[in-house]
Specification:
It comes from Paraliobacillus quinghaiensis. One of its GO terms (molecular function) is metal ion binding. InterPro entries: CbiX-like (IPR002762), Sirohydro_Cobaltochel/CbiX (IPR050963). This protein is of the alpha/beta class. It has two domains: 2-100, Rossmann fold; 105-221, Rossmann fold (3-Layer(aba) Sandwich), CATH 3.40.50. Helix content is 45%, strand content 19%. The protein contains eight helices and eight strands. It has helices at residues 14-25, 47-56, 73-89, 105-117, 138-155, 172-180, 199-213, 229-243; strands at 2-8, 35-40, 61-66, 94-97, 126-132, 159-164, 186-191, 218-221. The strands form two sheets. Strands 2-1-3-4 form a four-stranded parallel β-sheet, sandwiched between helices. A four-stranded parallel β-sheet has the order 6-5-7-8, with helices on both faces. It is elongated and about 60 Å long.
Amino acid sequence: MKAVLYIAHGSKNEQTNKRMRLELEKLSSLVDMQIQQVAFLEADPNIKEGIAQCVKKGATEIILMPVFLLPGVHVIKDIPEQVHSAQLTYPDVTIHIGEPLAASSQLITDTADRIFNKKIETKEKQAVLLVSHGSRYKEASETFQLFTEQLQKELKDISVYDSYLKTSEPSFKAKLEELVKTDYQVIYVVPHFFSINSFPEKIEQTVTAFQQMFNENSIVCIDPIDFNENIKIAIQNRVKMIDN
């Protein structure tokens, strides 16, 4: 019997984990699999406990779906290491690891929609600044650059740039300062994070500070990623890629 185990990052805040769990449990109506569980990389239940729950319900084949945006350290290193440990306990269970949402068409469409929802109608020059976490793994920045290029095609006449909060370059603050000092009159700052995350709030605080320093520019903070229909379908499709 097959199972899908959704893997989220996890938080020290149990209410945050509860919100994430509730959102992922809603996927059960979209994913055609009898056994569906939620586990966390850095909270309880952890991945090994999640696998144990699936096995207890009769699973002999498990699809691990990382609910992550980019292939950073968690997707490339941490999750596979925990899966390897669990595989030693359950050698007869087949375990597949899915791909993060990356540059899926649904995520690109969702990002464009969020920008258009707050788009200012003007003839002035406009730009979009995407903000991701940053990673020491080049796969993450390469995927984010691909995402930026695909979003540029979707937005057409609005220039799209990428930036990072940590580790990778260019840094968010440096890139935002660079853009406000050019001839862009409107800049849309787009958090590339799920809404169930503390980083969007920190990004918004930075935007507020820049709005006060550079009040001749319109700096618009776009909403983070929510678990709407686009995102649910993107996750569903990632599961199908392995299940087919």
